[in-house]
Specification:
Strand order of the largest sheet: 3-2-1-4-5-6
Structural class: alpha/beta
Radius of gyration: 17 Å
Shape: globular
Oligomer: single chain
Helix content: 40-55%
Length: 208
Amino acid sequence: HCITFENPCLTGTDLKHGQLIRAKKTLEGRLTFCFVGRLERAKGVELIIKAFAMLSTHEKERIGKVHLVGDGHETAYFKALAKDIQGIEFIFHGFLSRAAVFNIYKDSHVFMLPSMASEGFPKVIAESMNFGCIPLVSNVSSIAQYVNTSNGYVLNNVSVDNMLNELKNIINLQDEDYRQLLETHTAFISAFSFEHYNARIKALLNLT
């Protein structure tokens, strides 16, 4: 028998802190977006930058910052590509500590991973959702088993145009709708806690 487990990545303290962050987040002011992972085209980094470039001047005024956390052999290309885009502040952080990445999540409204590569289920999605980020992700591997229209945005076909359309949808998202999306995250996130993982192990071994 094969038994699947969610990849644990959140402590009890993380869950409590995340709940407080989510309770305070709103869409007032400008929106902040983030990406965390290897900076390469297969992960959708080029697609992200090109989609933001295609927003109208008015739509760009709704964007605060776009954080790109990570590194890769194509980083110089992505920096050059982003440099020529007017009206969007792209911030390339390189590799960061877990605590520093969590601070990026806390400051962001949307987590992006329009990946075209095999992913399993990246724990960065659960981590970012814990801190109030709406996921904008692609339908690869097992991602769509967890993220759907009830808790985020899913790209069934990964393209610049589809990414652009979802960015527009998010820019026009009402605060009430954002709050409803965040409310669905609580039960979802708990499945990625170490406590939940340990409880499942104990139950399987009849240790409870």
